[in-house]
Amino acid sequence: MSIWITLKCLGCILVFTVCTMAGVNRGSKLSRRTVLLREMSRFLAAVRAELTYRKARSRIVLQNAEKSEEHRLLKLDFSGTETPPELVRREETRAKIEWAALTTSEERRIFFDALRCVGTQDSAEQCEQLKGAQCLLEQAEKQAGEKAAEEMRIFRTLGVCAGCAAVLFLL
Amino acid sequence: MSTGAQSFYEAAGQLPPDVAQPLLRVPRDAARLVTEIRLRSQRPVTLTISSRSYFLRFDGIPIQSHTNAVVTLTHEQLTACFHAVCSYSVHTFEECISQGFVPMAGGHRVGISGTALYGENVFTVRNITSLNIRIARTQILRCSEAVRQLLNDPLRGILILGAPGTGKTTLLRACLKVLSDSGIRTAVVDERFELAPVSDTGFIETPPDLCDYFSGYPKHIGMLQAVRSMSPQTLVCDEIGGDEDVAAVQKASHAGVRMIATAHAADETVLRTRPPLRRLCATGAFQSAIVLAEGKTGRTEKIVDLDHA
User: Fold this and answer.
1) B179: which of B81, B84, B101, B235 lies 20 to 30 Å off by Cα?
2) How does the average pLDDT of chain B come out, rounded?
3) Domain co-membership, B201 together with B237
């Protein structure tokens, strides 16, 4: 009898944990999206700074921007022998898969279109385009942040509630 | 530095593949003689061979008459070529672009034309419609014995004269090699990056040992800087002729530095008729003029003694 109760309790704990974790996970996905969008807009800002102050070749501009700060989610790699447009295309293809869950195709298009313009115009025009893209990504980040704060709590609560409900049902 | 046909193929190879393909099919014998590749928006690609323009067929054969089989560029293709010659870094060459040219890897120079845009203290060119790739050639040219003798005389300033496309810069590069081999310390003012192109990682081709380069400096500033900072025995400058250049030449020669320079002039008579060149000769910095022959890159037609001219 006591084994039966113990197993039942363990099962309840397991169900409760799974439901809670599902809620937390859904919530943290929203927070990861905010982080990635922030890193994307900061990356564009770093490219803009490189273009304004150093005017080095595009490949070096992209590599320096990549090294400008530690990125948690924005893993870009501009090393290789390809031309800068090819490097951007390669990273865009990679991002399409890796960032698919965290960003929309429109956000990725804004980001990579801005990177594609690097090296194709004079620095003033490039900086204008980068600034435009950066503003759009910052807006998206702000909206994502607000949504994350609101929905994270809901998802966590829902997770806990679902866990409790399942436990009550099983008991 | 690459030579002959190799130099042509090297320049062509830097263009986007769809434009480079027919150029890379040009037979070696013809490629060896090409001095310019001219790319124009919505018009055929032309090659300049011995001062004459040839259209380029898809199979790489240069022909004189325009047929349907010639390679014609769209505006997008020309824009892609412009990005490629700038190494996909247009912003890096802004200064050069505003002066109408872009230095290319391998020492080639690309003349550009397009739409001028004036901003506050800024002049730039956008919407490029024509590119003229001038193929750099150095080692195919060896200085003649007469030119070598002039170069080895430390008291003789030399002015190299020639019409556009006669190979003044090509001869100047060959002269730098001779000067360096003779142990003469030389400062080179290379405003347009033509004599020794540089990239972020240093010189694209290793220049002569005893030469110090002032790359991208306006000529008059570079000349004075060179005299002050590197104490050269010889100062070399390409394409001088402005009033500021004349003043800088005078100062350099007063400092006891021998001058070697090039100037646009079909022959030595222009030195008397064109005021800036007349003033240049009046500085006393030049004792000899090398006049280049038309249609033969860097070939000396005659050497004129300016002291007795």
Assistant:
1) B101
2) 88
3) yes
| Residue ranges making up the domain that contains B39 | 4-134
Same domain flag for B71 and B92: yes
Of the candidates A57, A122, A126, which has its C-beta nearest B200's C-beta? A57
> Is there a contact between A55 and B126 if contact means CB atoms under 8 Å apart?
no
Residue A111 CB partners (closer than 8 Å, separation 6+): A40, A43, A44, A133, A137
User: Nearest-5° angle of CA B192, CA B195, CA B197?
Assistant: 70
* The two structure tokens encoding residue B19: 């434009």
* CB-count exposure of residue B233 (10 Å: 0-12, 13-18, 19+): middle
> The domain spanning residue B53 has which CATH number?
3.30.450
* Buried/exposed code over B54-78 (b: 16+ C-beta within 10 A; e: otherwise): bbbbeebbbeeeeeeebbebeeebb
pLDDT in tens, B3-60: 678 889 999 999 999 999 999 999 999 998 898 999 999 999 999 998 789 999 999 9
Say whether pLDDT at B148 is over 60. yes
- B264 and B200: one domain? yes
* Final residue belonging to a domain, choices B108, B134, B160: B134
**Which of B78, B88, B120, B123 has the most A C-beta neighbours within 10 Å, making it the best mutation to test the interface with A?**
B88
- CB spacing of B89 vs A126 below 8 angstroms: no
Give the nearest chain B residue to A116 (CA atoms): B88
Of B78-92, B98-112, B160-174, B188-202, which gets the smallest average pLDDT?
B188-202
CA distance A97 to chain B (A): 27
ipTM: 0.75
What dihedral do alpha carbons B190, B195, B198, B203 form, nearest 10°?
-130
Q: Which chain B residues have any C-beta within 8 angstroms of a chain A C-beta?
A: 83-84, 86-92, 94, 97, 119, 122, 124, 126, 199-200
Sign, Cα dihedral of B226, B232, B236, B242: positive
> What whole-number distance in Å separates Cα of residue A12 and Cα of residue B47?
82
Is residue B40 in some structural domain? yes
